[in-house]
Amino acid sequence: MTLNELPIGSTARIIRVGGEGSLRCRFLDMGLIPKTAVTMQKAAPLGDPIEIHLRGYELTLRKEDAEKIIISTEEKP
Question: What residues does the Ferrous iron transporter FeoA-like domain cover (predicted)?
Fold first, then answer.
């Protein structure tokens, strides 16, 4: 599942951060690091961009960029 598919109000953990070169580095600098919990806050009326909550702040991403973030909604014991 990718970050852009997460329903509003749901929480998930980042599994893998995709992208290439400077885009991937930008994601990591913004706190999108594997094992980080993210919550989908809201989406724009037409669905793009989306707003997520992570590490104590809100981050707005384009859906195109959010498709590069692989997440898991399953909690492991």
Answer: 1-73
Which residue, 76, 67, 71, 74, is CA-closest to 14? 71
Within 8 A by CB and 6+ apart from 52, the residues are 3, 6, 38, 39, 40, 41, 58, 59, 60, 61, 66
Element (H, E) at 13: strand 11-17
Going along the chain from its start, the domains and CATH numbers come out as 3-72 (2.30.30.90)
Q: For the segment 28-58, what is each residue's pLDDT rounded down to a tens digit?
A: 999 899 999 999 999 998 878 999 999 999 9
Is the pLDDT reported for residue 77 higher than 70?
no
- The distance of Cα 12 from the centroid of its chain, to the nearest Å, equals 9
Question: Torsions phi, psi of 6, nearest 5?
Answer: -70, 125
Q: Determine phi and psi for 19, rounding to 5 degrees.
A: 90, 170
